[in-house]
Structures are given as C-alpha cells and as structure tokens.
Amino acid sequence: MRTIDHHIVGHSGGGASRSHVVFDPNTGQVQATVALGSQAELDKAVAAAKAAQPDWARTNPQRRARVMFKYKELIEANMEELAHLLSSEHGKVIADARGDVQRGLEVIEYACGIPQVLKGEYTHGAGPGIDVYSMRQPLGIGAGITPFNFPAMIPMWMFGMAIACGNAFILKPSERDPSVPMRLAELFREAGAPEGILQVVNGDKEMVDAILDHPDIAAVSFVGSSDIAHYVYKRGVAAGKRVQAMGGAKNHGIVMPDADLDQVVNELSGAAFGSAGERCMALPVVVPVGDKTAEALKEKLIPAIEALRVGVSTDAEAHYGPVVTAEHKARIENWIQKGVDEGAELVVDGRGFTLQGHEKGFFIGPSLFDHVTTDMESYQEEIFGPVLQMVRAKDFEEAVRLPSDHQYGNGVAIFTRNGHAAREFAGRVNVGMVGINVPIPVPVSYHTFGGWKRSAFGDTNQYGTEGVKFWTKVKTVTQRWPDGSPTGENAFVIPTMG
After folding, report:
1. Fewest beta carbons less than 10 Å away: which of 37, 164, 341, 491?
2. Domain with 273 in it
3. DSSP per-residue letters across 164-195
C-alpha cells in the first residue's frame, strides 16, 4: 500500500502520528494512506518559503514566465499519467479527468503572459516636473486550501497565478485524493522553480487552522462548501490575511418555451450528471417555463437519464463513475430520501445501483425529481451528486427570481432562441456567472471565476486579472527630479498638482 507524505523542503518523511485513508472509489478498497500534518510540518514549509521567496520575487517576470512555459510542457507530456492518477482516487472517468487537468493548464498558459499583466500605470507630467507610476509587487507567501472534486484544476488556478506574480505558495489539498497535487508540485520543481516556491502540506482541519493562523502567510485562497468557506474567511481575515473563499452552489438552468429541447436534454445530461454531479458548477436544478415546456422536457429527459451509463472510471463508454467515498454516497442517498419525504415526485430513482463485479464501489445511479418547490430543504441546499431537480416556473419573471433569491449565486444558464430574453436575463439575474445556451459557464482563463452571495466570500475572484490583483499589492511612486533652483513652495502645505 502506498504512503503519501508531504512535499516540503528538508522534510525527511515518515513518522506521521496521524494519517487518512485514500480509497479506490471503483472498488471501495483502501489504496493508500496520506500523512496528516500539524503545525510542525507547516512551520517547516513556511521557513523554506520565506528563504526562497525574496529571490523569486526579484527574478524578472519574463524569467518566471519561462518556468511557467516549461511547466506547461511538462503537464502536457504527463497528461495521461495525471488523468489516470486523478481518476483512480476521485472516481471521475478518464476523459473528465483530462478535462480537470486541461482547465487548470489553461490558467498556467495565462500565467505564461505574466510580464504583460503585471505592468503598472504611468502618468508623465502629473504636476510640474512630477511623474507618477505604480507597480504590482508580490505579497510574500500565499496558501491554497483545495477540495476533492478538482484536484488538478483548482490547485493550478491558485498556485499558477500566485507564483507567477512572485509569491511562494503552500498548498493544502484534500486528503481524499492527494496524489495529483503532489505530482503537480514535483513537476513544477522539474520545470525549474526553486526549492520552497511550491510546497504541499497534507492535513485536515488542524492543518487548515494552522494555515489560517500563521503570521507569515499573507493570503489564503479556498474552495469548498459554503459553511467552511465562511469559517475560513472569518478566521483568516481576523488573522490579518487577504482571503478569497469560494463556497457551494445550486445552479439553475432556465428552459424557455422556445428552447431546442433536444439540445437542452443533451446539455443537461452532462451538466447535471457529469462527474457524478460532484462539481460546484454542475446544473442540478432545471427550471422549465410553463407546464407545457415542463411536460415536454420531462418526456425527453426520462429516457435520456435512463440511458446514462454508470461505470468504472476507466470505462471509455461510461458517462460518469463512482462518487468519492462511501460516506458521500450515503449523504446523496439521504438527500434523495429527504426530497421524497418533502413531497417532491421522484421520477427516476438512482439509489440501489450496483455495478457487476464492483459491488463495493461507491456507485449511485442518476435521479430525477419533478414538482420540487422552493420551501424544500433538498432544493435550498447543495446535494453534490447525480440528482436533477425540476422546479416549474409559470413565467419569465419567476424564472429570473428563482436563482436570484436562492442563497447561492455561483452560476446559472438560460436556454432560449430569443436574444432579447437572454440579454434581459443576463442583466437582471443575481448570480455571478451566466451561461446563454452554455450549461456550465466556467469562464476562460483570461476572464475570471467567482460567484455571488453564499457562493463566495471576499472581494476578488479566481485567476485572470482578478487573480493578479489578489496575489499582489500596489505601490504608487510620485517622483520629481528638481533642477537645483529654489521652487518657492511652502513645504507645510499639502502638495497639489495644479
């Protein structure tokens, strides 16, 4: 059985007093143990980061970009290894695992252009003989706390931007699937990054609290559930850190009467059930406008859902694989029962699914609810599994109001052929990311990712120019080079540029 340790400069490994098991979700068997670190391991990582970061910050941006270019090449060269390793611990199918790596790699590609995006502003002649310019400088040491559902993409979203900006970075990945983050750190060192610039500390809440309280860590980025995101934000800010904490979601898909229902069903099948629904940008709520639309949509959805193939993560024909743990499977099944108890109509029941030859795997079939109402707890909370809920809206106004009034505001989509309706919806809906005939509106790397309401705590989004802002601080310089003659100015009066 494998033992997964930390990736810390000078750490000899072994002797961990606590550990966590890593399952193979396809079989339900333990495949590895991961060491759970403490304050002592974090202190070693911070010490190494403090030693390495000043020289890295002084390295000019184009040389930092060369490391990013080399890293990009190494990720591409090792794509299959990373995808299979990811799939073996998470359970998502190989094609989806490749997508996980690829979406993270796109942020690394954006970070390759760091010399351009780090440029400051300059004003010549802001006053008599006075010029003003600004520069963006790194914060020092940043940290990332990442979830199990995207063990490649989300870490690269964080450390790619932070390190390109001149910071050192300490990553605390999920203890459920830690092998890919460890491999990403090894490849980054191989790409030419100095020791101490990217390190990985494994752990649970004890490590999270140590990161949030550590005085030498300047900023923390987090992705996870909303309750924990709020906790991370409050504790980190109280410790004087800059914090961005991305939380949960309950994304809605609005289906207008004029929508192409065949397209909608195809898009919903992937958006609701892909990766077994373990995505913060999944589409677990569909909102048909009008009963006629709802009935027509349900008629097409049922056979499409029943035709979905659930299989082992290495099955090239499978639409999705197992969920990450037995506990998470039980949690999803409890939410399905909760929906039934609340009075929703369970049209397709995914409970009780077993895969021949893999009866102990963490598999669950797709489920569909109809006649879900907004007072149901199963609608209000995030299920994070292969469960699609249908909430019927009587008109466009109600369709706008449903996602706008929900506690989460991560993403939303509208399916329509009407440009005016789409434009009106995008402008009015109270949600951070909007898709128009795009079911999973995760922005490209040179834009930015972030939700609203309880889906995000903090003022700055992930990656893109927002990522640069988060991982840097602005210094503004006002300069004058006098010619030696007296100016006659009153030094006791606040200077103006008039």
Report:
1. 491
2. 252-436
3. HTT-EEEEE--TTS-HHHHHHHHHHHHTTPPT
